[in-house]
Each structure stands twice: as C-alpha cells, then as structure tokens.
Amino acid sequence: MFKVFDFDKTLFLVTVILVLGGTIMVYSSSAIVAEEKFGNSFYFLINHIIGLILGFAILFLVIKIKYPFYKSPIFVYFFFLISIFLIILSLISPPINQAHRWIRFFGLSFQSSELAKISIVLLFAYHLDKKREKLHDFLSLSLPLVALLIVSLLVIRQPDLGTTAILIFIGGLMLFIGGARLRHLISLNLIFIPILIISILKTSYQLKRLTYFLNPEQDPFGKGFQIIQSLIAIGSGGILGKGMGESTQKLFFLPYGYTDFIFPIIGEELGLVGAVTVLVLFFVFLWRGIAISRKAPDLCSQLVSAGLTFLIVTQALINISMTLGLLPPKGIPLPFISFGRSSLVCNLFIVGIILNISQRKVVKKLKK
C-alpha cells in the first residue's frame, strides 16, 4: 500500500536540519575566499542554493512516484548505463584541478561518480532480490560484480581512489545484508582490494599522501599542512566554539574549508557541541534509514533503503575521520553540508528514494 506524503518525518526533518546548517556553514566558511577570488562573497552560497533548490525539487518529485521505479530493470540498467556514460565523458573532458572527475554543461559542472554510487546500490539490490534463491552460486552474482569492476576501474582513471573505495565497500555491504555467503565476500576482497593497492603504488602522490597522513609533521608546510590546520581548527573551538563566522583557520589557512574540510570549521566556530550535534544527526539518519528498511514490503526495497542509508552515513564518517586525522584525505565531501552541487543534488535524490520506500506499507491480511 502506498500513501503519498506519509513518509518518515524524522528522516526528512534530519535532512532539512543538515541542509540548512550546511547552507549557513558554506557561507560562513566561503565568504572571504569568494570575495578574494570572484569579488562576490555570496558566490559559493548562490551556487549552493541552486543545488539545494534542484535537489529538493527532485526529492519531492521522487516521493510522489507511486510505481516502485527503483525495482524496474529498465530504470536500473538505464541508470547504470547513464552513470557509465557520464564517467567516460568526464574522462575525455578537460581536467579540473588535474583530475577528470567533472563534466561541464551550460556553465555548470557535475561530478559523474556521484550517480555511479547510487547505480551500484540499485543494481546490487535488484540482482540480490532476483537471485535470492541462488546466492550459493557465485556465478549468479557475476553481473553486478562485473558492473562494480567496470565502474571501479573507470573511477580510478579519473583518478578518485576515495570514491573507488566507497564503491567497493558498498558493494561488499550489499552482498552481506543481501545474504551472500562469506566466501563470496572474501572473493570480492581478493578481486578489488589489490586494485586499490596497485593504484596507490603506481601513483607517487598517493604514496606521499599516505606517508604524510601517518606523520604530517614531516612536511608541516606541504603535504601535512592541511591535516595540521584541520586539527588546529577543531582543537581551538573548545566546548562552545569561537562563534558563528569567527573562524580564523578559514582565513586561507585551511584549504577547502568550505568543501571537504568544512567539519573543522564547524568545530572551530560551534565547538564540541556543534561537532557532536552533526554526528548525532547522522546517527539519527542511520537509525531511521535502517528502520525504514526493516519495515519495507519486499527484499529489494529493504536492500535499496539500507544500501542508500549506509552510502550517506559511510561518506559522512569517512569525511569526519579524514578531518580528524584518522584517515588520509580522499576528497570525500560531508553529505548535505559541504559545498558541492553534484553531491547535494544526488544525496537529496537518495533521501527521496528512501522516503518513497517509507511510504510503502505492508498490507496485513484480515483473518477470516
């Protein structure tokens, strides 16, 4: 049974709070940089709001779709092929910051791998549902695994090892929650983990990034500069922070303070209270996403909801761990909060799918 707008209000409210808080922090962390680069302190805020409007328009459109489109093979395969096409298009497009991660159209840029993350979740959910009786046979999973391999190799070429690692992790997680056997998960690791290791070993700057992550003091004004400044920002905020807009690290000390490293600015301006609040909101998001998955009327809906929920929360935890020096910097934005139209639009699309599933209720048959 489908009830329009009878969606999970808690998940929606958490998303709105994260997005509104993120919008405020994008302006706070980017105004000075925007004024310096573009002569307009509202430059990044305006672009963020454009993504916000488009993202919420897609979210409400998806919420109203009665047909479970995420289960349709036509939609699943078409969405995957579009993702592949956009990644290939980005690879042949002019590089931005020495990477082929974006494509430009009508003066706007879009990060192609954002759609690939969603497509992998949908593809795995569809096949795990269709092959639920044959999960003991590894060949039954060959199509989604080959699809994951293709996407991973293309994303590595951009290069984007952070997104590749997320794709592999989400693929393995989908197998686990879908009921695949342990030996299948081990096989997945044996196939994909060497790809990441070889890619790191072949790229000198990735090795240097890993080295300086382990000991940033080796190059405090070079490769270790960003993580050191991030920790200074978080540590200087104290319990209550310096106050909104009072960050000093955003004054050209902390690179990418409005994108990948926006969490330290939150810690500096809003203190431990603000940082913990962000963590709590993401854990509430995880709780509601899992609850929606458990109540979903069929296996495919359960897998889609769980997979997309973990996709959002995993990226959040990776980003926060990265800014705390627990993981090497990988260019993973903080969902709903970091500046980035591609990420914001795709994440709101994800929330739309999860909320769409939350409107689908199991019809209980009356006993005669």
State the shape.
globular
Strand content: under 5%
Mean pLDDT: 85
Helicity level: 55-70%
Number of helices: 12
The radius of gyration computed from the alpha-carbon positions, rounded to a whole number of angstroms, is 21 Å
Low-confidence stretches: none
Order of helices and strands: HHHEEHHHHHHHHH
Give the total of domains. 1
Number of strands: 2
Spatial strand arrangement across the major sheet: 1-2
Give the structural class: mainly alpha
| Quaternary state of the chains | single chain
Task: Give the CA-CA distance, first to last residue.
Answer: 21 Å
Largest sheet: 2 strands, antiparallel
Plain-language structure description:
This protein is mainly α. It has one domain. The protein is built from 12 helices and 2 strands. The chain has a two-stranded antiparallel ribbon. The chain starts with 8 loop residues before the first helix and ends in a 10-residue tail after the last helix.
Indicate the topology.
Elements: H1 9-38, H2 43-63, H3 73-91, E1 102-105, E2 108-111, H4 113-130, H5 142-156, H6 161-178, H7 182-202, H8 204-214, H9 225-236, H10 262-295, H11 299-323, H12 341-358
Helix pairs in contact: 1-2, 1-10, 2-12, 3-4, 4-5, 4-6, 4-11, 5-6, 5-7, 6-7, 6-11, 9-10, 10-11, 10-12, 11-12
